[in-house]
Design brief:
Order of helices and strands: HEEEHEHEHEHHHEHEHEEEHH
CATH class: Alpha Beta
Number of domains: 1
Distance between the termini: 48 Å
CATH topology: TIM Barrel
Strand content: 5-15%
Shape: globular
CATH superfamily: Glycoside hydrolase/deacetylase
Helix content: 40-55%
Number of strands: 11
Largest sheet: 6 strands, parallel
Number of helices: 11
Radius of gyration: 19 Å
Length: about 290
């Protein structure tokens, strides 16, 4: 997208956002009074000011977003989000921050900033990539083999209160996996490897890519059988009190501040268009042999 068209898009979105803001503010207050305030789970990938890729956000942008989020939302953990969904009541719009993949540069600025301000964060990593310090194929393919976190870094983060989560062994697209043994590797063995390496319980799982086509009922069943407390998708949905607390829908944190504000104040267009993935639990095939791992 050209710079001119990008500015034009932001101007149009800004016009829409500020024109509808009074109605949104009224709606959000009414929902909060009724205990139906939304719970939004954001996800980031890499915060850095060098070696740019599509998943990288500049440090100044991230800092600005964290400040705005802290001023307008209650910052909560995934466990708190689950509890409120299960209880069917949330009296204040809340945000939970998560990260996917496990990029080393997140330890330079983003994670220390969140730790300093006591903001809960869940940090999902692909086990083989962090244990073997292997760059992700999608970065290597474009000539940018970015470093991943080390196990020592993950242990330090866990000791500082950050929740370490599983993101498959090989950053796999589980929507394409049909082999039960491969599902075991990507979900069950991933959890076991991380627990042994980090020395902490691994309670949460996030799907790489996380769109509807990357989710299956079998993968949901495998994660539940493996003992995960919840799984996270990434197709942009809102979580409302009374929703299934095992499936946390996430929204990608956009670099454009106006788009983030628009989404987090609950864009009625987005809310109407996003279809929640509901796994077919009754017909999902539980992993054969999972109890033997």
């Amino acid at each position: 997208m050209s710079t001119v068209s990008s500015y034009g898009s932001q101007w149009l979105l800004g016009t829409y956002y500020y024109a509808t803001l009074p109605w949104r503010a009224w709606w959000n207050r009414a929902e909060a009074r009724a205990g139906r305030a939304p719970i939004i789970v954001l996800f980031y990938h890499r915060i850095a000011d060098h070696t740019w890729n599509a998943w990288t956000m500049p440090t100044r942008t991230f800092e600005r977003q964290v400040k705005w989020l802290s001023e307008h939302f209650e910052m909560i953990s995934l466990a708190q989000a689950q509890a409120r969904l299960a209880a069917g009541h949330n009296a204040r719009p809340a945000v939970a921050i998560t990260f996917d993949d496990g990029y080393a540069e997140n330890c330079d600025f983003a994670l220390p900033l969140l730790i300093e301000h006591a903001i809960p964060v869940s940090y999902f990593v692909a086990s083989r990539h962090v244990i073997e310090r292997q760059p992700f194929p999608h970065d290597a393919a474009v000539g940018k083999p970015l470093p991943t976190n080390s196990i020592d870094e993950l242990r330090d983060l866990a000791a500082a209160g950050i929740e370490i989560g599983a993101h498959t062994r090989n950053h796999a697209d589980l929507g394409k996996v049909r082999d039960p043994a491969e599902l075991q590797e990507e979900i069950v063995i991933c959890r076991t490897e991380l627990e042994q390496a980090v020395g902490r319980p691994i309670r949460y799982f996030s799907f790489p890519f996380g769109l509807h086509r990357n989710l299956t009922s079998e993968a949901f069943a495998a994660a539940r059988e493996a003992g995960f407390a919840a799984v996270c998708s990434a197709y942009g949905g809102y979580n409302l009190p009374g929703d299934d607390p095992f499936h946390l829908q996430r929204i990608h944190a956009d670099r454009e501040m106006i788009r983030l504000k628009n989404w987090l104040s609950v864009d009625p267009r987005k809310q109407a268009l996003v279809r929640r993935f509901v796994p077919d639990v009754e017909n999902a095939h539980v992993l054969a042999g999972a109890d033997d791992l």
